[in-house]
Amino acid sequence: MAPDEWIEACRADEIEQEDVIRFDYSERSFAIYRTDRNDYYATEGFCTHGKFHLSEGLDMGNIIECPKHNGRFDVITGQAKRAPVCIDLKTYPVKVEAGKVFIRL
Fewer CB in a 10 Å sphere around the end CB: N or C, the chain? Predict the structure, then answer.
């Protein structure tokens, strides 16, 4: 994988508004979000607290709630927003072209 390579993650229509899906690539896992405003974002896939995959969590606008301990993160900035999480998520640039969602690793 080249530096700053854009990777196709999914079709844009695979994600409903206010939803999140799992995307695995090269032994890594990501969460791809579509907000209620129809914007797309990507973060690392696992909660920084309990290592549960965020694609199983509750997506509320630009907030994802971990399915295990209900910690929350802002999907735009990755910022930890509610205990027990205290370590921010890594975020990744996203672009949508020709109906496909790409993330830059």
Answer: N
**DSSP secondary-structure letter at 97?**
E
Q: Please give the tally of structural domains in the chain.
A: 1
CB half-sphere exposure, 15, CA atoms < 13 A = 29
Question: Is the pTM for the entire model greater than 0.90?
Answer: yes
Give dist(CA 83, CA 69) in Å, integer: 9
CA distances for 4 relative to 64, 84, 103, angstroms: 26, 32, 9
Token pair 């979000």 is at which residue? Answer: 33
**pLDDT tens, residue by residue, 23-71:** 999 999 999 999 989 999 999 999 999 889 999 999 998 999 999 999 9
Give the count of beta carbons closer than 10 Å to the beta carbon of residue 49: 17
Q: Does 50 fall in a domain?
A: yes
